[in-house]
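FORM 7B: Structural annotation worksheet

SECTION A. Query
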Amino acid sequence: MPDQPRTTNQIVLAQHRNRFEESTQFGNTLTRFFEAQGITAVRFESDMYISSIWWIHATLPKSSLEIFDIAREALFVYADLNRIQPRLLNQIIERFGGHQSLDSDIVFIASNSVDAERLAEQREGTSISIIPLNLREIERDGGKPIKKTLERWLPVFDRYNVTRPLRRTDDLFGRKDELSEIVFSLRHGQSVGLFGLRKAGKTSILNAIQTTRSKSGSFVVQLDMSKFVNAAHFRKTIVEECWKSATSVLNKANKSTRALHREGFLGTLDTKGQATSDVDTLVMGWLDDVTAVTETVKLPLELIIDEIDTIFPGQSTQFLDHELQDFSVVMRQLRGLLQADDRQQPQAVLLCAGVNPAIFESSTTPDGRNNQLYKLVRLTFLKPLTFDDSSRMVRSLGSKMGVKYGGQETTESLYAYFGGHPMLTRQACSEICKLRPDGSFPWTVSQSEIFRVVSSRDIGSVYQQAKEIATQFTQWFPQEAELLRTLWHSDPEMQKFANEIVNEDNEALLHARAYGLIDPDSPPRSRIGMITNVFSKS
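SECTION B. Predicted structure
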């Protein structure tokens, strides 16, 4: 018979456990499973809205902690439901946000629904490893050992292979300083342009800032220029998204949204926030309505725009010339909101991202006209990760899959090839994981697996990804790209010639330095070995 609880916390925990066991069909089954597996529950909490859902915090046995690096409490969700909807994942993410003691990379879902396994297989776009526990199997035969369950399900999610930008700040490695600096600028009315190499993590940073700023009650709208058909589509979307965000901000602050629903208050929107399809009305009234909504919220609009460089004349492959001229008009109008007069802060602040900063960096457009967006934002350049941050990312992501990078020489090799570029490093590690022998838990990566991956020239290989990055850099900065080819030429005389140019002109490799293709040393030193290899062979 277990010892009687002695402390107040133990008494409260026992009371909640008893209520869980008495009010659920399989509560006793799950708590007996915990005891048999050495899992220690430290919190039982029923869901506020659905009585058949319970939230349980627990610590795993030492053997699992060491193998899979689950250092904090694990979240178990008891869900006695016929169907588990993907929206449960949103609740789980909210739970992680409100409880810092939880390991936010993993969740156990105890259920009888086949949907739990489906969620574990598909994950619906989340970066959380989902471990399903079948309650009827546990009731019938005690269930599989927790270590075996982790070995079965953790490798299902290749944590390295992220095909879409991240959204959670917990998923970002080595970007704390960039996030803090950008948020500081936004809070003080300073617009920011974030530029860097393809797949360097720019969109993930925008997503993380949008998430954190919205949670803090800020008035935020996030847009992606690559998703618009033309400027009319942009105007329609921005007024609708401003209305939605404003409604959310006011509701969270328990303030009235009556003005936003008033007939005739906004010229381009109806009382439900739907924009008119009349192009002329949108052209004439979109900016007035954005301004009116902003004044109603009484907060500056924090406008986040990705792929901003796609609307710069002479640089875009997405829009026709007349569409780019229309976008130019839109941005000139928007500039009035972004620039404060002598009496007040600006009504809006812009955070944008792209690869080519010419839209803010060049005083003229390629056709010789004055660039109205010149120096509109403070430019900041996103460099690759440091060695320490890159190594931490590699080890941390791998540990949740039972993949170990043993001595420092393996992470040093990865850094020599990829220089801390997040996507290239993760893609390489993802390919390395495919070489893992069946049943190897944990598995330690060796130099031979790294060499096999970096040597591949197959379609979709890491080399081909590096080649795409080099190609895009060449498209935007052809003179710098040519100089890099000369600098990394096999002929020492060519290298000497390139170094002389760099020594005479400190800005000859301005963007190559800013983007981290080379270290800021003089003479310049290659940082991303794989991209250096691409340039030297082109």
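SECTION C. Observations
The chain has four domains: 8-156, 169-382, 387-455, 464-537. The two ends are 74 Å apart (CA to CA).

SECTION D. Sign-off
Analyst initials: ____
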